[in-house]
What does this fold into?
Amino acid sequence: MNKAKIISGIELGSSKVTTIIAQVVEDPTLMEKSVNVVGVATAPSRGIKKGQIVNIEEAVEATITSVEAAERMAGYNLSSAFISLGGAHIHSQNSHGVVAISDQNGEIGEGDVERVIDAARAISIPQSREVIHVIPREYIVDGESGVKDPIGMSGVRLEVDTHIITASDAAMKNLRKAVKEVGIDVNGFVFSGLASSEAVLTATEKELGCVLVDIGGGTTALSVFIEGAPVYSSVIPIGAKNVTNDLAIGLRVSLEGAEKIKLLLSDEKKQKKDDVDDLDLTELGLPDIKKISKKTLVEGIIKPRLHEIFSMVKLELDREGLGNRVPSGVVVTGGGAQTIGVLESAKRITLLSARIGKPQGLTGLIDDIIDPSYATVAGLALYGARSEASLPLTSFAKRIKLPTKGMLGKFFGIIKDLLP
It folds into this structure.
């Protein structure tokens, strides 16, 4: 008999807040899990800049709008969710752990694996930072490297190479507080680049070596995979909104008008339909501009900013000595992946092959989310399905935002604690 669980994820991005609700159906006969999307909704982002909350009240309102719409679509009332985490405060490092195998017969058990990961986790970090991921890259049993799962093997000494991602404690507290005020508990924080990799990268690309570049509204997340595991993670504080700003300044139009022009340029059907240089802007309803040279926009304004983003990616790859270890090339995803000329810039600057990454591995209501801009939130659902944490399945009820501050807030908190 198939068992269904509910998994949800919330992406609080710089340009949009997206909530996804999915059913995870386990088939014991096939030993497989299918992730079926039953609800997804997006609201314009407010109170969030470059991946970090700058106004909690506005962020809460945007999150409530997104969550309620997703709940109405799915017919479920959420109580907890996985939350994406981005921003320039994300840092990573690789660590090594060693333990002696505890079993007298030398057989490695789950306890040994947990101990060796804990040993690798014991790194020195400032008090203002917190570890969010400890990802085993490979295990070493008595000097034999390349072991992916050591449980059941025999040996005396167990080692592990791990990839550790840390984040600002203050940024995480602000995110947790915003989500808590919506009435949702945090199942776990997931680095946005790691979440996107779950949705858009293939096992072959991860094994051979590849670079994931997730261009969001205010930031660009970078994840490098070699031999099936991440080896480097970071966030660049430049995103697709910078392209919009450049267009607004260069053309002397509003940000809304610049965004419309950028989307018009990125429309693949219009690009294929005609190769005329003059771009007709009359349908956009802009008061001052009717026609403009497409080449001027692309070559003079958009490409220099894209070159800057990929130059920073290339700089980080070279600094870490990873530029020659990623034969599968660059996978570009996120909303910025739809910008005209993004693949040309990626190939020209990084000197690697490049492709656009779209979410895969989901079923159900996926017509709207098989799009690079939904890579992170799709990855949250897949990440949640892979982990053991799941949400309780409850009937839908309209969410009521209760006070969380003052005496009234304390009263509602006591009542909530008393409820079963």
Q: What stands out?
A: The first strand starts at residue 3 and ends at 12. The longest helix spans residues 294-319. The two ends are 29 Å apart (CA to CA). The mean pLDDT is 86.
